[in-house]
Amino acid sequence: MHFLKVRKNIIQIIFSFILVLILGIFNSPTEMFYPQIYQTAYVYDEDQLIGVTQENDNQEINSQNNMDLNTTDDIMYNTTVNQTGSLLNYNTTDQSNQEVEKYVEENTYELNEGYQITIDGKEKVYIKNKEDLEWVQEQVLKTIIPDNTKAEYFIDTGDFQSYTQNGREYKDMKLENNITVEETYVPGSKIIDNKEDLLFYVLHGDQEKKYATITENQSLDQIQKKNKINDLELSLNNPDVDNQTILYLGQEIIVNQLDPIVDLSVYYEEEKKETVKYRKEVKKTDDLDIGDTEVIQKGKNGSELVTYTTKQTNGVNQYTEKSNSEVIEQSINKITLEGTYEVPGVGTGDFAWPGSSTSITCDFYCYSGHGGVDIQSWYGAPIYAADNGVVKTAGWGGAYGNHVVVDHQNGYETLYAHMASTPPVSVGESVEQGQVIGYEGATGNVTGEHVHFEVHQNGVQQDPLNYI
Known about the structure:
Layout: H1 2-26, E1 37-38, E2 41-45, E3 48-53, E4 89-90, H2 97-107, E5 111-119, E6 123-127, H3 130-144, H4 148-157, E7 163-165, E8 168-175, E9 179-187, E10 191-192, H5 195-204, E11 211-213, H6 220-227, H7 231-237, E12 252-254, E13 264-276, E14 280-289, E15 293-297, E16 302-313, E17 316-329, E18 334-341, E19 360-362, E20 373-375, E21 382-384, E22 389-396, E23 402-407, E24 412-419, E25 430-431, E26 436-439, E27 451-457, E28 460-462
């Protein structure tokens, strides 16, 4: 190792001398060269600064303003000291030596041997001991995986063994980030040099540590509730503390909420017994009249065992989906028969207009004893059945003249009077709504052609205009 350090010093001197010669030969007072500085860092040998190194194949050197390349405080170029990491980027612009030196001073670091942890090619973490990273990994995994045997197996092999906790079967674990660990030279001022701080940084990034103190009036449970941290966060923040730990007054607890710089996902399955509601079936049948129903099979709920798979990243659910189901008890559908048979002559209860026009010459009780409405169209105009029914009367009827009475077999009857001639329907005949049952005339006690229309409900005359 001493031989390597001596060799480095010799190479430094040789390259410095060559550079001085080059600058003396090719640089004139009127020429200006501006630096391109990449991957620059201070280099020490046994705590003694020996120069500033960088890597750039096409760099130019600013030799103005008495920059002394032989002193260790100024920039040395093209040294052979190996270093990695782009610690300084400086674009070629018209800058003075003073500005360049200030920039270099603010953006260069002492390099120490250590490890660079790179996350997804962007986030960089610098540590001194690889054992610190292994300890952090062990703390995190042993907190997430309560079975230490399985946690150690995962640490050793990378293979996850399922385990069950609180009714959940944890099936897999996945680190969502691409992480590389490289042994190299790292900036000393950025090194996280103890494992506890490294654990905190992994869990919380650049947050400042937040503490709560155990007092007579503030228990651990109260601290958790006040700071909204769960048992997992408590354990990760404080590896030596859990709900079973005996605490003392004045003890400080880290209470930061998780905001990790990496994403760790776990996948677990959870079984739930769920009710399967029965379905309703309706079957049409001519064995029942229209409007009639009959339940031939009662419904009964069933049950099934449903498996849900959940992905949880850093303690937050990303999704839950149904992955499997197993029938425990089959449901039984409710089956209802619905009648389709239409009984001839049964009214719908909704009356249609019986005349060929809408002209009313005398409404309900327009004079004493007038129990209907008079609708005038023209002599011989068709008269229509107001609803389905059975002909009860058809023929001559004194003051009504030629008339028809229809029994709708639902409590209603309708009367159509003063027809021109004998009605074209017979007693006992079924008629349908809208069917022609006579023609407008002037028979009976009338002064002109029209149809006299009456509605009776359970034998009581009603105002027809309330129904049509």
